[in-house]
């Protein structure tokens, strides 16, 4: 059985995921759904954390099943119109494709792809191998399967000169692309496909165009936060939040590059005077970034913790977790455990829970069950909202 902290995370995510589908209690309703605290990120990182909990070596079969059921509930929420309405509404105004997966918008499609892969490698059933539907209006309905989501993303990677997929029209970035790469990687593990074949070409482009070099000046961090893919040159700004996010998700995808760049980021973390539990480290974020819903201290520190776990930096990870336990308002409520801090507590909690459960490497190293031996036996069904 999971120990108390991990079981508390499981209970917390389970409660939020399985509430009535039109209820969003405990989620942050972003004022800027195109930014970094949108529902898609709250849903997706909670799903990855649940995948790691389901795969934890001490999780009981009952806990594994609870985690998988909550993952499916989060995926079903991800398909809801309100999660991708930011894209369709703007596309409707521009008279362009409303479909949130077909072209660009990897900030949504990449996260969904990784969620679907995480569900399967965590022992989930084959329900998403069957068609599910994203509904914008009676006339605008988009049908996909797990494989067709991945295939749509991979086809864009193959034909685009940068071998990536745009996050927004005309812009690409490393952090959101990483989720698409994870989706490819997990699909290849499950179905023995070769979607990850273009990853090296993408990372070559990243090194040439999206990694910032030179003096560390204001706004010049490691990665360009929003590279202009249709014009030259790209925007030359970034922040510690997107750096930590990109690096944490990159370690298993491009380990040599991540390990080359991570020390630059680690130099930016802030050490506080130790408390009775040991060292304290955090990643402060300016008020401007939080006001724009681009970053906050809680999630920047959470991504830094996840990066430390992925890198095997045990002392740094312990100091970051100690900061969370000391400063991010850990809360126990009706058997659930969460960090009641930051713009989106579920997002903050997901990052620390994922790290405590072993990190993204748990998903990368999983041995997915075949269709015949999947640990779940629920009937397949199509999802429509």
The arrangement of helices and strands along the chain is HHHHHEEHEHHEHHEEHHHEEHH
Q: Pairing-aware structural class of the strands and helices?
A: mainly alpha
Share in helix: 40-55%
Strand content: 5-15%
- Major β-sheet strand ordering: 1-2
Report the uncertain regions: 371-385
- Whole-number tally of structural domains: 1
Radius of gyration: 19 Å
CATH class: Mainly Alpha
At CATH level 3, the topology is: Glycosyltransferase
Q: Architecture, according to CATH?
A: Alpha/alpha barrel
Shape: globular
Distance between the termini: 35 Å
* Strand elements, count: 8
3D architecture notes:
The protein is mainly alpha-helical and 385 residues long. It has one domain (4-365): Alpha/alpha barrel (Glycosyltransferase). Helix content is 51%, strand content 9%. The chain has 15 helices and 8 strands. Strands 1-2 form a two-stranded antiparallel ribbon. The longest helix has 18 residues, at 61-78.
Short description:
With 385 residues, this protein is mainly alpha-helical.
């Amino acid at each position: 059985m999971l120990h108390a902290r991990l079981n508390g995370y499981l209970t917390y995510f389970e409660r939020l995921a399985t509430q009535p589908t039109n209820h969003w209690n405990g989620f942050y309703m972003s004022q800027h759904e195109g930014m970094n605290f949108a529902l898609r990120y709250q849903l997706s990182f909670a799903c990855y954390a649940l995948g790691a909990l389901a795969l934890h070596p001490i999780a009981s079969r009952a806990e594994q099943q609870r985690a998988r059921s909550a993952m499916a509930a989060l995926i079903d929420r991800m398909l809801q119109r309100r999660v991708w309405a930011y894209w369709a509404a703007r596309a409707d105004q521009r008279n362009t494709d409303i479909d949130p997966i077909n072209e660009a918008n990897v900030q949504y499609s990449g996260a969904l792809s990784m969620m679907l892969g995480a569900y399967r490698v965590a022992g989930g059933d084959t329900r998403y191998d069957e068609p599910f539907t994203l509904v914008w209006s009676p006339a605008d309905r988009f049908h996909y399967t797990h494989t067709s989501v991945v295939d749509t993303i991979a086809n864009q990677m193959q034909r685009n000169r940068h071998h990536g997929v745009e996050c927004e029209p005309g812009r690409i970035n490393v952090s959101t692309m990483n989720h698409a790469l994870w989706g490819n990687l997990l699909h290849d593990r499950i179905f023995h496909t070769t979607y990850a074949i273009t990853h090296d070409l993408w990372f070559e482009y990243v090194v040439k165009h999206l990694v910032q070099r030179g003096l560390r000046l204001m706004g010049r961090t490691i990665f360009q936060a929003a590279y202009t893919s249709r014009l030259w040159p790209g925007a030359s700004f970034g922040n510690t939040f997107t750096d930590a996010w990109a690096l944490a998700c990159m370690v298993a995808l491009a380990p040599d590059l991540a390990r080359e760049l991570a020390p630059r980021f680690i130099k930016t973390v802030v050490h506080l005077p130790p408390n009775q539990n040991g060292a304290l480290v955090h990643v402060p974020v300016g008020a401007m970034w939080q006001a724009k819903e681009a970053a906050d201290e809680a999630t920047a520190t959470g991504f830094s913790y996840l990066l430390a776990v992925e890198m095997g930096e045990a002392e740094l990870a312990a100091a970051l977790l100690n900061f969370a336990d000391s400063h991010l308002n850990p809360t126990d409520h009706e058997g659930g455990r969460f960090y009641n801090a930051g713009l989106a507590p579920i997002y903050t909690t997901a990052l620390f829970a994922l790290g405590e459960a072993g990190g993204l490497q748990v998903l990368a190293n999983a041995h997915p069950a075949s269709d015949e031996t999947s640990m779940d036996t629920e009937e397949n069904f199509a999802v429509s909202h």
